[in-house]
Structures are given as C-alpha cells and as structure tokens.
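Q: How would the structure tokens look for this protein?
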Amino acid sequence: MNPTPRPVAPQRSSDPRPNRAGLARHYASVRERSRALAAPLSPEDCQAQSMPDASPTKWHLAHVTWFFETFVLERFEQGFRPFDPAFRVLFNSYYQGVGEPFSRPQRGLLTRPDLATVWQWREQVDARIAHLIEHTDSADALRLIELGLHHEQQHQELLLTDVKHLLSINPLRPVYQRHWPLVSVTTVAPRWVEQAGGLVEIGHAGEGFAFDNELPRHRQWLEPYALMNRLVTHGEWWAFVQDGGYTEPRWWLAAGWDWVRAQGLRAPLYWTLPPEASATLPTVFTLHGEAPLDPHTPVTHISHFEADAFARWAAATHADWRGARLPTEAEWEAAAAALPVQGNLQEGHALHPLPARAAGEGLLQMYGDVWEWTSSSYNAYPGYQPAEGAVGEYNGKFMINQYVLRGGSCATPTSHLRDSYRNFFPTDARWQFSGLRLARSA
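A: Here is the predicted structure in token form.
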C-alpha cells in the first residue's frame, strides 16, 4: 500500500443491490464515526501535516466527502451541482481520470477552505446522499455508496495514525484521548499452533463487500506450517534491541540494513530509549500520551524490514523459535478463515495494542491490535481484473514494491474487516499500527 490515503477500487459482490435501509443506517453510522474521531482535535490540529506520508485531519474529512460528491452525486444526482467546483482538484488523491490532484506533501498548506466549511460541505453531501439512497433506482449508485463507506473507514484509521504522528512531534507530548486502557493480565506464553496446510482456497467468497484486490478466489497449496499463538510483544522486542538487533547487519536484508544506517534507527517508532547504563524500560508515545513500555503488549510501529530482521534473530537465538519467519498471506488467511472477526478494534476505544488474553489452545489476536506483516509481496491474484473507470485506477497500479499485512489493528473498524482483507505498505513504512506474528515450516 502506498504511504498515503488508501487506494480503493470497486467491490464485487454476488448481491447486485445493497439493502437500501441497511445502507442508509451504515452511511449515517460511518459518517458520524468520522465526526467523533475528529472531536478531540482543535482546528489547528486538523490543519497540520506532520510529514509527506501523512495527511491533515481536515483533508481526510474533505477527501472522503469528495469521493461521494465526485463518484456518486455527480453521476447519479438529478440536476447535480458541486458544493464548490474547486474542491474537485483540492481533495482528489490519486485519481488521474478525475483531473490533476493537488500535491500530497502540501496538503497542510490548504488553509482554505477552513474546517467549518468542510463540515458544511459534509452536511450538505450527507443530506443529498440520504435522499439518493431512498430514491435511486440504480444498483450501481448503491454499490458505489457502499464502496465510499469502506473508503471512509480506511481514512478513519489513517486519521488516527496521522494524528498520532503529528502529536508525537510536539515536545508537550499532547494527548488525543485521556483514557488509558491497559490493565493487568495473565502473561500468555508463546506457543506454536500447528496448521495442516494442503490445498486451500484464498480470496473473498460469498456475499458482501470486497475490494477487487481480494478477488478472484483461487486455490493455493500450503505445506504444513505453524503460527505463533500470539503476536510478538514489546518485551520480546526490547530483548532484540538489547541484544544489538539494530547494530548487527546479519539479521537484516541488504536494503533494510542500508535503511537502518541511513535513518540512524535504534528502536521502533515512538520509543524513547533509556540511557545506556539504565536498567529501566523505554517509554513509548501513544494516543493517550507518553507511557512506560508495557512488555506484554504487542510491539507496533515497525517496518517490514524490522519484522523480517526480528524473525531472523528469533530463529537464531531462541531454541523454541528455530525456523521462525514471517508467514505468507495465504498461511495467515487459511488459519484465520474459521475465526470470528473480533478483538481489540476501533470500537473498543483502546486505540493501543493490548496484551493477549489466554483463551484455549488456539490462535489469539488474529484480528485487531496490530496489522501483521507477511512475507508476501502485494501482487495480483491469478485472473485479477481491475474495474473500469476512475474508481478502478487503484489497487492494481500499486501492485509493486509493497508487502501485504493482515488482520487489522486497534484503529480498524470491525465492519471493515474480513479474513480476505489485504492491506499493503512499502517495506520502510512504520507509522501505522503494524507488528508481527511468527511462523515456521513444519
């Protein structure tokens, strides 16, 4: 996935027309959730852009509204008139078929329109979309509205991760949410959970929404393998740091080692390391402010380079982790297919990874907490066909120089996830809630 607002493409579903009443409720719920996520922020917070990979909150709120106006109302509303014709350029992301987008690294310089105008635009578009849902005879219009809602849910997660990066730069270490979610729990020991492998089917199946990169469903052969029962923790990562993980080139891919040296990295993003002679744990910046590092919580904000290096280190230094590696996305999906989509997700309001809770002998934390890096390049499935038109520009054209992540994070809406969902980022991206689960071959 490009390090920008998430590219999307139309869903394909066996249901030709989403349920009209259900779609209206879903629309109202998603749009209200975006407003709630922005509520703790000042207008100044909403304006600022902390780095080229991130976008201002105001831009996120405007862009998702732009999507509904540009791809739905412009095409299906009788007597369509834009709220402001200039917004068609200002809040385009990467849809070249719509026109030349405004420069992404300069989105924070768009002081006009102001935030109040963006909210007015959203309210007007909401009323028009509600009317369209009730009165349109077009199944295409309803499907595009459903697509727009999943697009907005992607931006809800980006809003949170971009705000976290923004606030982390401020020496005052400001708080987004004054609610610390962590509680004492029983430690869950790492344990391998064997998987049979064999001939499996991968990709979206059945009714309901899916992005085009989840299709077509197809067969893959998997040799027997095992997944770790839980995610790798901050405490395990701290052992990697203390053992010189960021100073030993043998754990790193060549490009990863060059990246570590060029960036001068010594730990994951948002860590503050103690003095070298100190025995104390690092502190970590969270959406709840600066906090002591909890060794039982899943490590997060790591790149693919870092995840791969940790797996190599774990395999070489821990007898119980011999053969450790990152899972493939097919291995992850085959193991997750029978599990319910539940866990520490956005609706839980923790907005931070939580410790695993013991629950039987199976896999824990497969959904929520952190996106799990896989060893799979982001490529098209056999028989993949991008959709026609501007909304089909994305997904397909980003299938290069990216790796797949699975499972969602503490910032992902529950209704946005399924076992076939494919997230993707470049190998050096780490401002998202990204972590890892170890795998090994049988």
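The radius of gyration is 22 Å.

The longest helix spans residues 139-169.

Upvote if useful.
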